[in-house]
What we know:
single chain, mainly alpha, two-stranded antiparallel sheet
Amino acid sequence: MKGYEKMRPFGGEDAESYYDEGLTASVKGDVALAVHCFEKAIELNDSFPAAYQQLAKCCLRMGQTDRAVTILRQVVAAEPGLIPAKLDLGHALLSLGHANEARRQFLEILEAQADNARADLGLATVCFLEGNWHGAVALAQNARAQGGDNFATMFLLGRAAKLARNADLAAQVLKEADALLEKSVELNPDQPEGYFLRGEVAFVQEQFATALEHYRAADDRAENGKVYTTFGEQFGRVDIMAKRGLSLQRLGKIEQARQVGQRIVQSDPNHKIGQALKAL
Length: 280
């Protein structure tokens, strides 16, 4: 990265120093700098699994899922027992729709660590993608029992319970998930993530006016071209706009929904939801 080498905070010309700087940059949200540091660490030591894994995490945050999967496959092949990398690989594979390969990763993890909540959540997500709502509920409940209350688990459990026609469980869990997000928004009122996810919870509950309010708040705070990653969910401003359009459609505000679709297609001509909204 141009100009960075002259002003490095640690200055050590070794892989560990670049790795530490990459972690610092990642925590601060400077993903581009973090990528530079992790790539430099790998250049200096090409047998540095942690640097590869952190580079893959950055790729995921930047929406470069294919590259992340390629990197994580290399890490897992070299270090089959590195469970954090296998977890990241499994969830990245799910983002690409590779459910069977993801399932294998999660099952291998559970053979080594039967109480791994993230692996249970991964398998629950596989079931959800395959339409096995009851299986998704059971595995998500297990993940919650093992890992406690967190939004990713509760949101999946709530959606699966709703589709499994367990309305009481769905309503209770989604209410609790929204309460977690409300606290997150209070702590980070200027960031779009909590607002967007509150919109997602409301949308699942078919509270479309409330969802629209949250999506608008997220849109007001989002930056063009930036990919946001939080609680296992990944989205950008165009995705927020798409959910705004869908909410408007559900509320019967067809012309407004069509206008949102037109804006989306201007930014991303191949966006499927944008195209559908534009054609209303």
